[in-house]
């Protein structure tokens, strides 16, 4: 087995010629462009994309320049052309088969979510370690045993996995996924995964994000508290 290595959340994209920050924002632009196209817009400006995504106009222009798109002065960007460029850059010109490990409340909700398919990802299997859950229907899929994980990954050409297990099980699951050939993992478990070189991990920790918001809320309250103390 390859040695484990600690990886920062998010894969380095320097080998693909795009900075990590740019890669993270491209899906936002693609969503905004898709909405503009549905409204009948054929062109758009960097200011429009900035307003739709919450990204500064300067960053929009810089990000798109990495794709070779600079727009036309006085006209802006061709919506269809830019959509195609971004889709190609982030691998949305093909569907990616995904296995979801963990059929708890979060995993079940994700498995039933219909929005993945329209954005290039398709959950083809939901697996769980609880024998009592096997065969239970989740959306259009039946929960399968984690004992079948390697077979599922091989036979269904899976290269991306979602880990939605309890924290104590996540590393063992990641090891199984990597051993079966998965090279990209979206980790929803509240632990940092250690994976070999060449395996990309994205960490999504909702509780941590809420704690960050709580920090900002607390800071917003300080002026009022200080004013009350000074009275």
TrEMBL record:
<dbReference type="InterPro" id="IPR003781">
    <property type="entry name" value="CoA-bd"/>
</dbReference>
<dbReference type="Pfam" id="PF02629">
    <property type="entry name" value="CoA_binding"/>
</dbReference>
<dbReference type="InterPro" id="IPR058236">
    <property type="entry name" value="Rex_actinobacterial-type"/>
</dbReference>
<protein>
    <recommendedName>
        <fullName>Redox-sensing transcriptional repressor Rex</fullName>
    </recommendedName>
</protein>
<keyword id="KW-0804">Transcription</keyword>
<dbReference type="GO" id="GO:0003700">
    <property type="term" value="F:DNA-binding transcription factor activity"/>
</dbReference>
<dbReference type="Pfam" id="PF06971">
    <property type="entry name" value="Put_DNA-bind_N"/>
</dbReference>
<comment type="function">
    <text>Modulates transcription in response to changes in cellular NADH/NAD(+) redox state.</text>
</comment>
<feature type="domain" description="CoA-binding">
    <location>
        <begin position="91"/>
        <end position="192"/>
    </location>
</feature>
<comment type="subunit">
    <text>Homodimer.</text>
</comment>
<keyword id="KW-0963">Cytoplasm</keyword>
<dbReference type="GO" id="GO:0005737">
    <property type="term" value="C:cytoplasm"/>
</dbReference>
<dbReference type="GO" id="GO:0045892">
    <property type="term" value="P:negative regulation of DNA-templated transcription"/>
</dbReference>
<keyword id="KW-0678">Repressor</keyword>
<dbReference type="InterPro" id="IPR009718">
    <property type="entry name" value="Rex_DNA-bd_C_dom"/>
</dbReference>
<dbReference type="InterPro" id="IPR036390">
    <property type="entry name" value="WH_DNA-bd_sf"/>
</dbReference>
<feature type="binding site">
    <location>
        <begin position="102"/>
        <end position="107"/>
    </location>
    <ligand>
        <name>NAD(+)</name>
    </ligand>
</feature>
<dbReference type="InterPro" id="IPR036291">
    <property type="entry name" value="NAD(P)-bd_dom_sf"/>
</dbReference>
<feature type="DNA-binding region" description="H-T-H motif">
    <location>
        <begin position="28"/>
        <end position="67"/>
    </location>
</feature>
<comment type="similarity">
    <text>Belongs to the transcriptional regulatory Rex family.</text>
</comment>
<keyword id="KW-0805">Transcription regulation</keyword>
<dbReference type="GO" id="GO:0003677">
    <property type="term" value="F:DNA binding"/>
</dbReference>
<dbReference type="GO" id="GO:0051775">
    <property type="term" value="P:response to redox state"/>
</dbReference>
<keyword id="KW-0238">DNA-binding</keyword>
<keyword id="KW-0520">NAD</keyword>
<dbReference type="InterPro" id="IPR022876">
    <property type="entry name" value="Tscrpt_rep_Rex"/>
</dbReference>
<dbReference type="InterPro" id="IPR036388">
    <property type="entry name" value="WH-like_DNA-bd_sf"/>
</dbReference>
